[in-house]
Amino acid sequence: MDNWQELEHKYYMQTFYRAPITIVKGQGAKVWDDKGKEYLDFVAGWAVNSLGHCHPAVVKAVTEQAATLIQTSNNFYTIPQLNLAKLLIDNSCLDRIFFCNSGTEASEGAVKLARRYGKLKLKGAYEVITATGSFHGRTLAMVSASGQSKYQEPYTPLPTGFVNVEYNNPKAIKVAITDKTCAVMLEPIQGESGVNVPDAGYLKEVRKICDEAGILLILDEIQTGIGRTGKLFAYEHFGIEPDIITLAKGLASGVPIGAFMAKESASVFAKGEHGSTFGGNPLACAAGYATMKFILDNHISEHAAAMGKYLIKGLEKLKAKHSIIQGYRGCGLLMALDFKADIAKELVSNCLSEGLLLNAVKPNALRFMPSLNITEADIDGALSKLDNVLTHSESAGV
Ligand code: PLP
Q: Does ligand 1 lie within 6 Å of residue 108's CB atom?
């Protein structure tokens, strides 16, 4: 057998912190490595495999579409694209959609749309206010938009036009708005920087501030959208309607896709002003349609909400047993468990040996982002493995 990890060290750019396993197969909430070891997957392709690995509805749609039509170009109308567009629009507060291939491209597209809006309706305003701790993607502009210096410093000078202000502080947004501002862009819950849930009134207040200033509110729902937080879109928790949202990750259960959606009033692109070769191609959209249809028909967002509550009950039991646990936070199936010490990396590594995939979202916090159709039995299984790991580290004096 080839040593895949040696090949990676030799041939691949050394940019990923990879766990030392090579995954070869996935089914439902489980994956297997090349040595046949089984793992419960609570990372789910980084909050991507909404319906678990290789869900029959997605496999069927991809297989049939691959044998029918994979790619044309956006010069032509294609049916899977329009089916998915209608399903997303009919089930959201937005009116128009554009498909792309990833989250960062969706964020870029949303910012381009906001800048176009600024040029046409706000006397050339172009600046976008974003939050500290935010993550909007890896292109140069989205690195500039994301309020985290660790992603920014290696690439300075960065594209201009972004102002990073404190998250969960509406006043900070209010004072940052000038006649150059065209939009505010926020994650309804910050995923990558630690599952940071804002105060209940935050987004409502921001919506009001944007309305008063006549600027757009963009919500980055790349991680929180498509049922992840227990509602189809996270904005539904906060009693507001955004002008633009971005989607990717869970939309096609693992087939690469991104999208941004806008209210009619903000849909200001004219022909030729934005585009994509692959964006919205029949294969990705067939996977997206199968995923979305299954989620809607089978009330998977509601299931995610119920499983989120079940997970919390289990985390509470763990907290009662292990004094190193500080607490938990999150919404639906996007949860973080905090510890009183920086042990998250070590726990992830020990959970891996135990057959459980988790993410250390912060030095002192684990993130849970399993598939949305996860069962109580799999949650019990994951928490029992974590319990074992915590018991071992306690007896080892960690
Ligand atoms: N926005 C948010 C909120 C994300 O969580 C991510 C990825 O983690 C992105 C944007 C970037 O998405 P992608 O990696 O598909 O470009």
A: no
Residue 342 C-alpha to ligand 1 middle, in angstroms?
25
pLDDT digits 0-9 by tens, 153-199: 999 999 999 999 999 999 999 999 999 999 999 999 999 999 999 99
- What is the β-pairing status of strands 162-165 and 127-131? parallel
Could you tell me the CA-to-CA distances from 41 to 214, 290, 359 in Å, in that order? 44, 22, 10
Query: Is the separation of the CB atoms in 246 and 218 below 8 Å?
Result: yes
Measured in Å, residue 247 CA sits from the centre of ligand 1 at 9
CA 221 to ligand 1 center in whole angstroms: 9
Q: What is the pLDDT of residues 357-368, one digit of tens each?
A: 999 999 999 999
Burial class (CB in 10 A: 0-12, 13-18, 19+), 264: exposed
Closest CA to ligand 1's atom 10: 136
Q: Are 279 and 72 in contact (CB under 8 A)?
A: no
Nearest residue to 135 via CA among 370, 332, 361: 361
193 lines ligand 1 (CB under 6 A): no
Residues 6+ apart with CB under 8 A from 378: 29, 40, 370
- Give the separation between CA 291 and CA 84, rounded to whole angstroms: 10
Domains of the chain, CATH where assigned: 1-37 (no CATH), 56-297 (3.40.640.10), 300-365+381-398 (3.90.1150.10)
CA-nearest of 224, 66, 8, 28 to 134 is: 224
Pairing assessment for the beta strands 38-41 and 30-33 based on DSSP bridges? antiparallel
**CA 224 to ligand 1: nearest atom:** 3
Tell me how far the alpha carbon of residue 47 lies from the centroid of ligand 1, in angstroms.
10
- Locate the ligand 1 atom nearest the alpha carbon of residue 104 and give its number: 16
